[in-house]
């Protein structure tokens, strides 16, 4: 994927609430926004830039943790591991120029899985280091994939532009709108503590109970739109982010909580972090006190801003917050922000 295609994809996301062909006639629901208070007392204005040859050089959409607590970074061309001291690249096959990686995970067997925007799915064997490329010839539903997830039974779920694919270790089973899937363009996947598979799409949100699919609706019976983030918190509440903002699923209904949210994350202290988009393509990171998030007026602190886009969020084993984004990753240690990049030219 060229740089121009990446930029186009970002613009499509930002404007998709107006342009998605499946939702052209969708009427926006009227929502009474709950008021929150944005605080800027700890807003960090200075970000130190640190160049490292092996740090991300392209857009980093997702960051995960491996079994040792190291960062696994999907930096489009490269999959990068950060052990707390240094960055190292996972070896690509000589014939492979780029992973075209949108997402990465380490499964319960120690294998590394990569969701590729161009080439299907890759698996790096934990024992041999052998790279297996799964494509449509192997039964995978589509070559262009955005997210990858392992459920409690060890099944690997893949979501992309061709629906959902489930790999049981032997073969793929694919789901599309023909099978009841509400939308074929999948952004994110989550299994809740009851074993239900939640998924967010560029069009709406849905749930698979192991037998059938159903579309999720908000408290007014309206469809969600452009769902990029779904998490289950440590109290078993599900949080969903669509183009209108943050929703909490409670008592079998969704409650609207906050606007201008892109990604939502709960840390080990049960505090929440979220990114948001600003005018002109800039982004912001904000912190929510966990014991206030269920209040109508909860505490939100803006931590820092960037002219670059923010994507995935993760907490490392030391309690630092990492954010993936444009041509690098940000580290927030509670006091300062450092931006790591493999690109020397910084605007």
Helical residue percent? under 10%
Low-confidence stretches: 1-41
Class derived from helix and strand content: mainly beta
Report the average pLDDT across residues: 88
Summarize the biggest pleated sheet.
Answer: 5 strands, mixed
> Reading side by side through the largest sheet, how are the strands ordered?
1-26-25-24-23
User: Quick one: overall form?
Assistant: globular
The count of DSSP E runs of length 2 or more, i.e. the number of strands, is 30
Q: How much of the polypeptide forms β-strand, as a percent range?
A: 35-45%
Cα radius of gyration in angstroms: 19 Å
Number of helices: 1
Distance between the termini: 22 Å
InterPro entries: Reg_prop, WD40/YVTN_repeat-like_dom_sf
Protein name: Two component regulator propeller
Organism: Polaribacter batillariae
Pfam family, one: Reg_prop
Give the arrangement of secondary structure elements:
Blueprint: H1 3-19, E1 37-39, E2 47-51, E3 62-65, E4 71-75, E5 78-82, E6 87-89, E7 101-106, E8 112-116, E9 120-124, E10 131-134, E11 145-150, E12 156-160, E13 163-167, E14 172-175, E15 186-191, E16 197-201, E17 205-208, E18 213-215, E19 229-232, E20 238-242, E21 245-250, E22 253-258, E23 264-266, E24 272-277, E25 283-288, E26 299-306, E27 310-315, E28 321-325, E29 328-332, E30 337-341
Parallel strand pairs: 1-26, 2-30
Antiparallel strand pairs: 3-4, 4-5, 5-6, 7-8, 8-9, 9-10, 11-12, 12-13, 13-14, 15-16, 16-17, 17-18, 19-20, 20-21, 21-22, 23-24, 24-25, 25-26, 27-28, 28-29, 29-30
Organism: Polaribacter batillariae
Protein name: Two component regulator propeller
InterPro entries: Reg_prop (IPR011110), WD40/YVTN_repeat-like_dom_sf (IPR015943)
């Amino acid at each position: 994927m060229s740089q121009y295609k990446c930029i186009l994809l970002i613009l499509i996301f930002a404007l998709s609430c107006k342009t998605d062909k499946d939702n052209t006639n969708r009427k926006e629901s009227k929502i009474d926004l709950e008021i929150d208070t944005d605080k800027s007392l700890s807003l960090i204005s200075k970000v130190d830039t640190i160049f490292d040859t092996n740090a991300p050089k392209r857009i980093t959409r997702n960051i995960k943790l491996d079994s040792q607590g190291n960062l696994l970074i999907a930096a489009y061309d490269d999959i990068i591991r950060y052990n707390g001291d240094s960055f190292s690249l996972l070896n690509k096959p000589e014939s492979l120029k780029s992973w075209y990686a949108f997402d990465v995970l380490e499964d319960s067997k120690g294998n590394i899985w990569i969701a590729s925007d161009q080439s299907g799915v890759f698996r790096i064997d934990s024992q041999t280091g052998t790279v297996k490329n799964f494509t449509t010839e192997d039964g995978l539903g589509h070559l262009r994939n955005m997210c990858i997830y392992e459920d409690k039974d060890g099944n690997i779920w893949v979501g992309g532009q061709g629906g959902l694919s489930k790999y049981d270790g032997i073969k793929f089973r694919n789901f599309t709108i023909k099978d009841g899937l509400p939308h074929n363009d999948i952004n994110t996947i989550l299994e809740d503590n009851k074993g239900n598979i939640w998924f967010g799409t560029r069009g709406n949100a849905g749930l698979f109970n192991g037998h059938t699919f159903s579309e999720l609706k908000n408290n007014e019976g309206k469809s969600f739109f452009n769902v990029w983030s779904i998490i289950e918190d440590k109290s078993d509440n599900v949080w969903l982010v669509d183009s209108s903002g943050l929703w909490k699923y409670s008592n079998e209904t969704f409650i609207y909580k906050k606007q201008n949210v892109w990604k939502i994350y709960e840390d080990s202290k049960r505090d929440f972090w979220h990114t948001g988009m600003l005018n002109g393509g800039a982004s912001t990171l904000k912190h929510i006190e966990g014991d206030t998030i269920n209040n109508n007026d909860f505490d939100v602190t803006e931590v820092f801003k960037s002219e670059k886009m923010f994507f995935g969020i993760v907490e490392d084993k030391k309690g630092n917050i990492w954010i993936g984004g444009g041509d690098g990753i940000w580290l927030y240690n509670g006091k300062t922000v450092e931006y790591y990049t493999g690109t020397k030219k910084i605007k």
